[in-house]
Design brief:
The protein is an alpha/beta fold. The chain has a domain of 88 residues: Rossmann fold (3-Layer(aba) Sandwich). It is built from six helices and seven strands, in the order E-E-H-E-H-E-H-E-H-E-H-E-H. The strands form three sheets. The chain has a three-stranded parallel sheet with strand order 5-6-7. Helix 1 runs parallel beside helix 6. The longest helix has 12 residues. The protein is globular.
């Protein structure tokens, strides 16, 4: 999944000392922990490089954190290939134009209500919850409760 605009509301606060801060939802974090504990492979793919994302990913034990990439489809396909996963077994969440190709490629492409038009058009599912406010948890619950 994308980070800014999915795990956060897309706001980045830049402090006068050059550091940044973001707000992550505890609801989303618990959903990710439950997925991880269920054996689901988790990855964050972000166009921005952010120390704050590293801290949160480390805290949640996110195995795959890829930052500073603009071709998210290529990164997602490479990661899926390395893990032996086909598109049909991948769920990708993103909210912006650079996420649209990955959303369209994934077996399940998910976006949030406030996403950009290209992401909305490429996604097969739009969450009822907003970015950074439980949207990821909503998807985690759907995955964990899906019929086998």
């Amino acid at each position: 999944m994308d980070v800014d605009g999915i795990l956060t509301d897309g706001t980045v606060t830049i402090h006068t000392d050059g550091t940044e801060s973001k707000t992550f939802s505890i609801l989303d974090g618990l959903g990710l922990v439950r997925c991880r504990d269920a054996g689901i492979i988790l990855a964050w793919i972000s166009g921005r490089t952010s120390p704050v994302s590293i801290v949160r990913a480390t805290e949640l034990k996110i195995t795959h954190l890829i930052q500073g990439c603009t071709d998210k489809l290529a990164v997602l396909q490479e990661l899926a290939g390395r893990l032996g996963l086909g598109a049909e077994t991948v769920c990708y969440m993103g909210d912006d134009d650079i996420d649209a190709p990955a959303l369209a490629w994934a077996g399940v492409g998910v976006t949030v209500p406030g996403a950009m038009p290209a992401a909305l058009a490429a996604a097969g599912y739009i969450t009822s919850r907003s970015a950074g406010r439980g949207a990821v948890r909503e998807v985690c619950e759907l995955i964990l409760n899906r019929p086998v």
